[in-house]
Structures are given as structure tokens and as C-alpha cells.
Specification:
Length: about 120
């Protein structure tokens, strides 16, 4: 369950922003999560709820925006979007070469938060 340390890190960012902006209650946290990050929404909310007990972020809702996976082909160096669930995952649509460098899809960060 690697969501726990991830959510701990995310919560630190949230609480830092909350303190800096003197908010009394965090209502929602908008996260950007790459689709290759291997994080599950259900567990993220579960651990977030657990970690935020008795903090200003208690009861806050996570709103997750899933980021597409973008790779750069190791054969033709073109960038392409690829679908992790598909059989064509990691295959370049330009030259049909296989594999390359992952440019995005593993990221996770706080995009925005709703508070009052
Ligand atoms: Zn290619």
C-alpha cells in the first residue's frame, strides 16, 4: 500500500497551504495523478481520511484528475500518448517501434484546493 506515504506527503503540502492562507477548513483537494503512478483512488481517499482526522482537512474530498501517459519513442524520437490498459501500450503510432522514455504519467501533485 504505497498510497499511505504518498498521501502523507500530499497532506503536508495541503496543510502548509492551509496555514499560509489561514484557512479554517479544507473542503476539497484537487490532485493531478499520472495514470502510471499505480495509485488507486479508493485507497488515496481512505488514507487521506485517516491522516486528516482532527486537522483542518478532515472530511475533505479528493478530486483526482488522471494524467495521460506520454512517451518519447526510442526509435523515431516522436512523442506519443499511450494507453496503459491497451495491448498497444508503449508502441509508437508513428513507426511502430516499441518502448521509449516516459515523459509523463507517473506524476502526482496538488493542483488546487478548495477551502474556506
Ligand atoms: Zn517511433
Amino acid at each position: 500500500m504505497h498510497e499511505l506515504p504518498v498521501m502523507n506527503g500530499i497532506l503536508k503540502v495541503v496543510l502548509k497551504h492551509a496555514t499560509a492562507n489561514r484557512v479554517s477548513k479544507v473542503v476539497a483537494v484537487q490532485l493531478r495523478v499520472g495514470r502510471l503512478s499505480d495509485l488507486k483512488e479508493k485507497w488515496m481517499q481512505h488514507y487521506f481520511d485517516y491522516l486528516t482526522k482532527e486537522s483542518v482537512a478532515e472530511g475533505a474530498r479528493l478530486e483526482i484528475e488522471w494524467g495521460e501517459v506520454v512517451m518519447r519513442c526510442s526509435t523515431c524520437a516522436k512523442e506519443f500518448q499511450t494507453e496503459p490498459e491497451a495491448s498497444s501500450f508503449g508502441i509508437c503510432p508513428h513507426c511502430e517501434g516499441e518502448g521509449g522514455e516516459i515523459l509523463s504519467g507517473k506524476e502526482y501533485y496538488v493542483k488546487n484546493m478548495v477551502a474556506h
